[in-house]
Amino acid sequence: MNRFTPPSSSPALKETTMTQAQSRRRVLKLAATAVALSAAHGGLLAQSKPKIRIGYWPVASGIPFFAAVEKGYFKEAGLDVEAVKFASPQQVVEAMLSCRIDGSANGTASGALGIGEQAQPGLLKIFCTNPTNKAFVLDEVLVAKDAPYQRVSDLAGKRVATGPGVQNVVIAKTILQRAGATGATVVELPIGQHVAAIAAGQVDGAYTLEPTGTVGRLNGTTRAVEVGVVARYILGDEMAPWHGGAASLSTEFLRKHPD
């Protein structure tokens, strides 16, 4: 008499059940491995995202950079940008030459960047410039609010401040000379001190950059006698675009991070 063998004890069914269980375990292991690899890959991407150290000095033409840092636009774009402040564009370029920063923000003097490129050919790549003129004001000559001067030529024989660095000094001297302000003495001062120096009578005027003029106008101590002075006296056309500042990245950084 044949005995009934329950399905659970059937050798064929046991083998099938074991095979299915092993398959499920393999699938689970593969899934777990995929998740782990995905997490590790994400971690590696996060770790490999480079910090981009950008040097700047506080002038109005750097506003796009300042806004991007303040508003978190770089972070939204997946960029880890560190803003590094300097007192002059020359210091920005020196830091690029010594690899302490990876680039310059808008408004870094184009002349200073050019000098850096001459000192170390292939140092940087410019990707943005800041054209200014009489309509889009950056450069200007300021005097005390109640001073009698009405134009740059009236500063003949006077003391005129300018920002630090070779580009500012050369431009200031050229403007004064071409405007007919003969015998004027150019004095280097940090741009942030121009309004205070005029108000204190330490200088009679200043070739300066925004936002200095706006600061002096709002606090009632200075006024602009002429704006867009580089376009007028150096380029010969007050509406000509003067590309006096630029944003750049070092070629070394671009080589290491081509993407």
Count of helical segments?
Answer: 10
CATH C-level name of the largest domain: Alpha Beta
Q: Which value, in Å, is the CA radius of gyration?
A: 32 Å
Tell me the helix content.
40-55%
Q: Could you spell the SSE succession in H and E letters?
A: HEHHEHEHEEEHEHEHEHEH
Structural class: alpha/beta
Q: Can you walk through the features of this model?
A:
This protein is an alpha/beta fold. The protein folds into 2 domains: 50-131 and 244-256, Periplasmic binding protein-like II (D-Maltodextrin-Binding Protein, domain 2), CATH 3.40.190; 139-240, D-Maltodextrin-Binding Protein, domain 2 (3-Layer(aba) Sandwich), CATH 3.40.190. It is 42% helix and 24% strand. The protein has 10 helices and 10 strands. It has helices at residues 11-48, 63-71, 73-76, 89-97, 110-119, 166-179, 194-199, 212-218, 229-233, 251-256; strands at 51-56, 80-85, 103-109, 124-132, 139-144, 159-162, 185-188, 205-209, 222-227, 242-250. The strands form 2 sheets. Strands 2-1-3-10-4 form a 5-stranded mixed sheet, with helices on both faces. Helix 6 (166-179) links the parallel strand 6 (159-162) and strand 7. Helix 4 (89-97) runs parallel beside helix 5. It is elongated. The model is unreliable at 1-21 and 27-46 (pLDDT under 50).
